[in-house]
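Incident review: delayed structure delivery

Summary: a single-chain prediction request sat in the queue longer than the usual turnaround. Root cause was a stuck worker, restarted by the on-call engineer. No data loss occurred. The affected request and its eventual output are reproduced below so the record is complete for anyone auditing the incident later.

Affected input:
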Amino acid sequence: MDKYLNKRKHDNTIDESEIDNGDNDAGPSQSSELESTENKIQNYLLDGKYYKIISVEGTKISVTCQLCSKKIIAYNNSTGNLLSHYKLLHSSIMSQVKEYKILKMSGNSKKDILKQTKLFHSGPNKSCSKQEVYELVFEYIICEIRPLVTVEKRSFKKLILRLTHSNDESIIPNRKQILQLLKNSYNSYVSMLSDLIQKSKFICTTADIWSGNNKSYLGMTCHFIDPITYERKSFVLGCKRIIGSHTYLNITETMTCMTQEYNIHYSKISHTVTDNASNFAKAFKTFSTSVKSTQSTTLSVGDLNEDGSPFEDSDVETENITVVDIGQIFTNSEDQNIDESFCLPPHMRCCAHTLNLISTTDIKKIKDASYINISESTFIKLFSFWTLISRSTVASDKILEKCGCKFPTPVVTRWNSLYDSSLKVLKYKQQLTKAFDDLHLIKLKLSEWTFLEEYCQVMEPLAISLDKLQGENNSFLGYVAPTILVLRRLLISFTDLKYCKPLSFAIIQAIETRFNYILDLSRPESKDFIIASMSHPKFKLSWVPLRYMKLCKNLFISECYLRINTETKSTNLTIAQSDKDDSDDDFFDSICNDNDFTSPSESESRNSNLANLQALSFLNLKKKDLDILNDFPVIKEVFLKYNTTIPSSAAVERLFSKAVQVLTTRRNRLSDDTFQMLLCCRSKYDI
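Output delivered after worker restart:
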């Protein structure tokens, strides 16, 4: 470090002929006194390029803007007023101002170089406070996902002491102090997120289960839309340990516990998005508020630990009672009193996961013999290639030498991985044909290459649709219906296929089965998707088939009317409560109360007309920006209610990607509470 300091001292001693003294834009009207004063001023904005000096009184300086000639009072050692003026009136050139500051501070003039040299030498004498060191070390541990014991490592202590030029090890927090900082940070995160959720009218959550190091965790994320900027905000609710089997009762209890920690009432959650697992479906089928009105809350004793199929007509399975032992009956009888307190929000299956099931599970059911033969022969050869390059370094190096890139290998748990891997092979067809000979692999025939081209052609719309729906920041529930309809239309248009017609037909059939509520818009479960798409300025009525046009329009207007009635009742209730405290108004109620002259039918008629006006005006508008919702308050409320839901549970999958980095094999003694706090605090720095 001393060598480095001496070197900087030597480097800063430069020839004056190499120093750029900067521009001198003072006009002829400036006096010689102002010119000498300007040369002494250290403020980079007062060198004549952006401001012209009028007068100087000590540190107080009167200047005029070079762009608009506005007079401004500034100070020699402050840029506050000067920068504020440019931010408010000349924001378009703020980037140039910042670049000019960097240029001036980097040493283009003699005074800047001398000033920087002085700061550099004064740096070692100026040490960071203990609190600053604590905060910086804590941020490093959390952001880089380092073990808490890192702060007690000898090399880490040496690094901090040398950087702070201190010999006092007490400025470095120990493991217990970092843990206390973690608890404080987590508590502030919970408080902050709870306040944001309380201010939001609608939120959406996602949930999934992940296992690592022989432990299971249920993760949840929270999402809502900023009503001003229409940006989606995403946060981590938690990642709690699940002990025992992943039964629907265990899942329900864990999710309820997690939402209660943030004081989230189930009525505020528009949907909870999960994958297609039967245990999640059973939990929501039993405890969701959207189905409780049509189902009995009484459960069969023998059904308590059944995970059940999501397509069952009833959760009551009387034949299972005979196979439950007496101990299990007494154990579960205590839970029946607790079950009544569980209330889950409406459930939505992950649309991206459903598309992935179509691309993996459903296409395996193809029974066409010719397709099966050529598909198996093609992918057997390709999987031999992918297996070889993933296991052999020699083969991988040869492929890298011939193709100049590495090839991804298909992974079962990664969506679109087979399509992406096949597309990469197809892109380097010529190079791989030669490389297969060098690796002693069986080359693909011409017909197999043709099959691979058709396979990628058919799977491309499906892959694009899946990528659109698994987004987080720019994806809304309103994207689902248009995406599925466009996907089906594209697959139908593939009529010139030689080998992959069975594949196209199988995908179309699977879409019609799994997304029947999108193709048949008269179904009750289609409502959320219809209104979400129609309230989005990008789509409106453009995606709706002609036979459902009238139905969808009436449904949308009815929802607008419902929102107006809800807002009206809420407003009237607020006014009524405020009027109770004003005894003077009570005396004049007989002549001043407008409600006496408005019958309920007239009020309903007025609300209906307003709903029709806003809905039809919005649907006829050609603009597609989200900002136009500001002109339609009712439509905006409908948009926020239905598009707060995201169509995919990929957000919680991304949470698990971070969890893998935290819960490593060497950290298997990490407590469950600390693990959850680390994940939540890590996401805090991503905001």
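Verification: The mean pLDDT is 81.
Action items: add queue-age alerting; document worker restart procedure.
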